[in-house]
Fold each of these.
Amino acid sequence: MKKKRPLIVQKYGGSSLATVDHVRRVAHHVIERKNKGCDLIVVASAMGKTTDGLIKLAHELNANPERREMDMLLSTGEQISVAALALAINASGKVTAVSFTGPQAGIITDTNHSQARILHINGERIKNALEQDKIVIVTGFQGIAETNDITTLGRGGSDTTAVALASALKADSCEIMSDIDGIYTADPKRIPQARRIDSIHYDQALEMAGAGAKMLHKTSIEFAKRHGINLSLGSSLSGHIGTTVSDTSLGRGIVTGVAVDEDIVLLEFALNQLDALHIPFEFSQQKIALKLWQTVQGLGMSGVSRGDSNLAMRFLHEKTTNVKKSDDFAMLSIIGDGIGVGTPVAEHFFKVMKSLNIDYRAVITGELFLKVLCPISRIKIAQEKVHSTFLG
C-alpha cells in the first residue's frame, strides 16, 4: 500500500515574485520542498506592485470604478504569477507543475465584490492533479461567486486563500512565505530593533493583524484558528520557517508586540442617542468596518479605513450634521494577554505616553490589546519609545 505523503500549502507574496530572478528563486524553493517528500499546493500573489498599477489604471479610466469591474481587472495580476511560476518550475525538468485560477480551483465565494468571503471549495481538480504527482499552483486573492462573477477577497486575501485551501483539503500545514521571515514584535522596517517571535497564539496574531501589522491577513488567522490549521511564516529568500502560530499562550501580563495603523480616517459629527444606537448597525449593513466608535455629550467619533471614508462621509451627511473629516491620526496598539486598562502594563503604558507629552484622542481596551489614537506626526516616536520600554 502506498504511504500517504503529507500535504503542504505554501503561499508566496508579491514581493517574493517581483522579478524573473525572484520567480526562479521561488521555483527553486518549491522544488526543494516537493523533493522532501510531500504533496504541494502553492498559492501566489500578483507580481510586485502589479495590483497597485492596476488600481491606478482603473482610477485613470473611471473616478468611481464599479466593484465588479475592479474584480475583473485586479484578478488578472495573480493569473500572470501562477503561470510564470509554473513555467519556471517546469523548466527545471525535475517536477511538473500546473496552474489554476481561483474559479478553476473551485473557490466559491459570496457576491461581495472586492471583499468577498469564501463559502466553500470544490477541490476536485486540485486533488486530481496531486494524484498525478503535480505541484498545484493556485491564484491567491480570488474566487467565483455562485452568480458566475469573478470576486476578490480584499488586500492580503492570498493568505486567506492559502489557509482556506489547507482547511478544505485537510493539509498537514500551511506556510506563508514572504520577504519578512516571520512575525516581529514591531514592523522591522519601522523599528530595526524589533525581534522575531518564534511562537505566537492565534488570538494575539489576530490582534496584531487587526492593529495594522502586515505580516498576516486577519481573515487568514481566523480561518486557521477556527479549523485548527498549523500555520507558519517563513522567508521566501531562504525558504526557512521563522514563526509558528498556534494555541500556545506566551503568558499573561506580557506585551507581545507593538503595532501602528495609519490607514484610519477620523470622522466627527453631531449625534443624538437614537443615532448612537443605529449608526454602527447601518455602517455594518453598508460593509463599512469601524475601527473606532465613541460618543460623548451629543458628539460622535468614528474611525474608518481610507477606502471606506468617502462612503462613510456620504452616509453621515444623510443621517446627521456638522460632519468633520481628519486623516491626521494613527492608532498605536500594544498586544498581549491581560494588558487592558486596569493592569500594571496599562499603567506603565500611559506613563510612557505622558512622558512623551502625547495628547491622544481616544482609548480602546480589551483583554488582549490596548489602543490609543495619536497624532500621526507623533506616531513614530511613540512606537519607538513604547517598543523599547516593553520589548527592548
Amino acid sequence: MSDDVTLTDQFGRSIEYLRISVTDRCNFRCTYCMPLEGLPWLPKADILSYEEIVAIVAQLAPLGLRRIRLTGGEPTIRPGLDALVRQLRAIRGVQDIALSTNGVRLPELAQPLRDAGLDRINMSADSLRRDRITAIARRSFAFDPVASLIAAQAAGLSPIKVNVVVMRGVNDDEVVDFARLTQDHPWHVRFIELMPVGDMQALTWEHVVPTNEILDRLAVVDRLAADAGPERGNGPAAYYRFPGAPGTVGVITPMTHTYCGTCNRVRLTADGRLRTCLFGDHEVNLRDALRAGQPLEPLFREALAGKPKEHALLQMQVGGLRALSQVGG
C-alpha cells in the first residue's frame, strides 16, 4: 500500500493520530482528573498487551496512521514502556511518537525512552510549588517539575510541552510563573481551560478561567506576539511568544472555543476500545476482533464513519466518562 494513503471521517477530516492508553491506573489523584478513591481498575486480562498494541498499530499504519501518543492513566507506571516504544518505532509509516506524563519518573526514564525512539513529551504540571502539587495531586512525592523537564531536555526530547490546567482559586495565581519559564527554556507552556467532567463535581464552571483572562494577566511579563508554536504536534493550541524568548505560551480552549472542526485523532483505551471522540460515546471494540484473528481495517473504517462532528461537553454530555483518566485526556 502506498505511503500517501489517508483515511477521512464522515466530515472529511483526515485521521492520522492515535492516542493509546497503556494503563488506566495513575500514581496521582488530580482533582480534575480522577476521584480521590480512584476507579474500579480494569482486570489485567482485559488490558491490551504490548504485543497487541503493536499489532493494532501495525494494521492501522498502512491506512494512514502516522502519529502516536502514549497516555494513561499515567503511562510511565507500566513496566517496560521503553520496549513498547522501540517496537512502535520499528513499524513502517509511524513518523512521530509522543508521551503524555505527569513527569514524576522522567528523571530516570527520559533517556531510556529517548534511546528507544520516543520523540517528544507533554508533561502535566499544575503547580511549581511542592505543597500545592501535593494538594492538587492528592499524593505526596518529592517532585520538582522543572527538574523533570530539564531531564527531558537533556535526553534530547523535543519539543517539550508543559500542560497547565488552570483552576480559579486553586492555581491561577501561578500563570505568570509558568509563562516566565518560556523566557529561559525552549519549552512550550500551554494553559488549558478546566473541563468539569463526570465525578469531578467539586470543580465547576466557577473554576474555569477563560483564555482571554489568562492572556491579559500575562501582560505584566511582556508583550506577547502570535507565534507558529513548535514544529511538531501543534494540535488545538494557539501559541504566543515573548520577545526573544526561546519557548512559547499556548492556550487550549475546550470550554470557550471548540476546535473539533480540525480534529484528526482517535483514542485507543487500555482495554482496546477505539473511541472516536474524547467526550463522545461512540466506541468500537478492537481487542476482541484482534484476539479472534479478525482484520481491523473494517472496524476502523466503521469507527470513523461514526466519529461525531463535535463534542457535547458544553452541554455537560461526557460520553459516559466518570473521569478524564479513563481515556488519557
Amino acid sequence: MSLDRAAAWELVCEYTQNDALRGHMLAVEVAMRAYATKLDEDVEKWGVVGLLHDFDYERWPNPPDHPLQGSAILTSRGYPEDVIYAIKSHADYLEDCPRISPLDKTLYACDELAGFIVAVAKVRPENLNGMKAKSVRKKMKQKSFAAAVNRDDIVRGAEDLEVDLNEHIQFVIDAIVPISEQLGLAATDVANTITE
C-alpha cells in the first residue's frame, strides 16, 4: 500500500471532530516530516505516522484502547506494519511495543513536545512568531501550565533521539511555524490592529 496523505486526513476527520486534536495531529505531522527530511527518511511515511498517531483518541481515550483500537482500524485498511507499530509504540503503557526504529523514537519525541509548544504559543502575544526554545523550557518548569503534558516524556524523547533538548525544541518549533495560521496561531499584525 502506498501511503496517501489525503486518505490519512480523511481517516482523521472521520474519527476526530475536535479541532484542537486535529491541530495536534497536524503539528506532529509537520514535525515528523521535518525530521524525515533531516534524517533522509521516507517523508510521506513519517508524515502519515504523525498525522494518524492519535486519530482514535477522541473515541477511545482510555488505555489500552488508544492506540489499539486505531491499530486494528489501520490493519483492516491495509496500512504497513511499521506504520502501525510506530503508532502503538508512542504509548508507554504498551510494554510489548518498545520504541526501536528511528520512526518510533521520533514520533514519541515529537508528540508531547508539539502539544506543549502549541500550548505555549497560545499564551504568547506573538503566538509562534519568534518563539525560542528558552520560552518553552521556562514554561516546562511551571508545573501548573499545561499540567497534562508529561515533561519527562519530552526530556526522554530527546534523549532517545540522542539530540540536545534545546535543539530538539527549536527544531520542532521551526517545523510548526509554517502551519501556524492553520492552527489558529498566526501572529497578529499589531500595526494593522492599531490603524483600523
